[in-house]
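Reply to dn_fold:

You asked what the input looked like. This is it:
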Amino acid sequence: MTYKIPDSTRIGHVHLKVSDLDRSLSFYRDLLGFQITQRYGHQAVFISAGGYHHHIGLNTWYSENAPPAPQNSSGLFHTAILYAERKELAVILKRLRDAGYPLTGASDHGVSEALYLNDPDGNGVELYWDKPTEEWPMDGERNLKMTSNRLDLEELLKLAE
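and this is what came back:
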């Protein structure tokens, strides 16, 4: 019999190798709004949303001043950060626009709406919210049918006003 991971299992955090801790904090703390929960000198910091011990660990243990990993190699594709409400996604989109921070993409996946960007080390970041499950697209046999359609950013931004 094949083992099945328990349904209640969640991914708790991601730990990223970065080349410059202060530059990464400018992105994750100052732009995206995470809070520092613990710092280990000048080599590592843990950040979170809502007081959790940490959602993201950032460290320079093996990567201080290193170049970004090659795009066409194995490794992390992106870290996905889930917002509870669509309006929250609109607010972070406005913050990114106001800061002049570039997106690498934006999609309506049928099950979610997502913004894509890279952190200062080239690590992919997805900012998204999930649509209610009753709105998820299904085929005639109730199989999930995710899509990658264009996300109307101007329409989304109206929620941030």
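The mean pLDDT is 96.
Hope that clears it up.
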